[in-house]
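[Q] Does anyone have a clean structure-token version of this?
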Amino acid sequence: MKAFITMLRQNKFLSFVNIATTVVFSILLLTMTIILNQSNIEIKASRNFEDKHLYKLSDTLLNEKEAEFLSKKDNFTTLNHFANDLLTTAKFTYYSAIWQPIEVADFKGDQIFDPYYEFNQEQPPVVIKNRIYKSVKSMQVNENVLKLNNIQIRNGKTFDSNDFNYDEEKQTIPLILGYEYSKYYKVGDIVDIYYYAKPFKGIIVGIIDSSQKIMTYSEPEVVLDRYILLPIMKFTDRQVLASLNDIFTRASLLSRINGIVISDLSPLEIRSTLNDISSTHNFRDFDVIGANSLGINTVVKMTQIHTSNLLIFVISVLIITTLIFILTLILTIKNNLETYTVLLISGLSINKIKNFISLKVLINILLGLIFSSLSFFIVLGDLIRLLPIFVAINLSWVVIVLIVINIACSKIMERFDIIQKLKG
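[A] Here you go.
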């Protein structure tokens, strides 16, 4: 034991360099774990849009035309059936992500959540029934938005199929909050909101991971950190007919038919399919606009290139760090040859000394890993699913280093003229 303590005390500076190198390696590994996780999410999402034909549907019901159309009761069910068929057809994917601010009562957040914060045009709070409501960024989404963008939930859950069905009796609506809301709200909190001028109890069912993105018609990428997500509601015909004068029902129906068509079909095939659906319900008050597929494909390519470049850089630095670590350990062994001579004279075998060297290396590594593991829980505390990957790569690295050091130690000892050293 005294012999081992003696070895531990040798070359303190190089030992410090070993520990520091381990810390740097593990922090770089932590960075790579984060990059791999986020890039895996983004690449999976981008593949759902890559080389697809995208078309925006836009209703032509404006001003007097809209008023005239909605003055007829049957047209409400026409809109409802048309929207349902767009969502359920097997010939294309119907995607709705619509920017729509909502008002939140007694809002806990700050100005960064304002819909116009980035334009320096913050909206003042409004008083509704003696309560102060603040307008915040919000996005209405259908089922396909969360699925195609591979949205990851940090806490809670995503919307399930029932969350998209309107329930006039409960008057509640599930909400998913962006990552930056996690400082102010938690899963299970209930907030009073106004959504299309209708009061609801908003139940927070989930909080999104940081830097999650979705595609919209106007933007290839929208970061959701400061957004609230709401489900676009589906109605039964009975619900529609029972609320003909309700702004919420009217606006929701119109929102549902202003989505994006995503498909591998040719433009002619897309238009033919849309014509079939519109003819079925005798609804033709919409235009089909070519969405910015070029911009989306550019983002897809840039995401892949950016991810590849980051990984190449991090892996290169990891290799350099590993080489520095191994070289400092070899230098430590060479500088301690005189100490090993004394230990040999004291009766220790070469194998015992090699075992002590490996144990010292292991201790140095573990000290560095303890620090980096604490960093993992601080940075990725809620992403516990990444811990097995982080630990597995770290352990693999430890095994490789120990094998290399054992081989290097054996080579150095073979060249070490022990007899000559013992003769003095």
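[Q] Thanks! Anything notable?
[A] The chain has three domains: 2-43+300-423, 61-96+236-284, 97-231.
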